[in-house]
Amino acid sequence: MTSDGGGEHLSWLAEQSLLLGSQCYARLLSRAWADPDFHRLLVRHPEQAMEQEFGGSVGERVTVRVLEEPPGRLVLVLPPNPYARGGR
């Protein structure tokens, strides 16, 4: 913790979370592009696909949704703001 109430620590945690998330995303994307069966599993049963890829469950309190982005469309996902109180 820092004298600013932990903001520096929270910033580091947020950064690490984003880094880990992007690494997991890249791994899932790479496998889905290379393996049509895994692609189908990821789209239909994402929690099961992630468990298969990473060897662990995402947890009961997390719901995973996979959207296939069609050509000409960009889907931007905004995660919860780690600096906001109450998750927003």
Describe this entry's structure for a reader.
- With 88 residues, the chain is mainly alpha-helical.
- The protein has a domain at 28-58.
- It is 52% helix and 0% strand.
- The chain is built from three helices and no strands.
- Helix 1 crosses helix 2 (36-44) and helix 2 packs across helix 3 (46-54).
- The longest helix is centred in the first third of the chain and has 28 residues, at 7-34.
Order of helices and strands: HHH
Output the structural class.
mainly alpha
What is the β-strand count?
Answer: 0
Mean of residue pLDDT?
Answer: 83
The parts where pLDDT drops under 50 for at least 5 residues are none
So how many helices? 3
Largest sheet: none
Gyration radius, in Å:
16 Å
From the N-terminal CA to the C-terminal CA, the straight-line distance is: 22 Å
Shape: globular
Helix content: 40-55%
**Strand residues, percent:** under 5%
Architecture blueprint of SSEs:
Blueprint lengths: L6 H28 L1 H9 L1 H9 L34
Helix pairs in contact: 1-2, 2-3
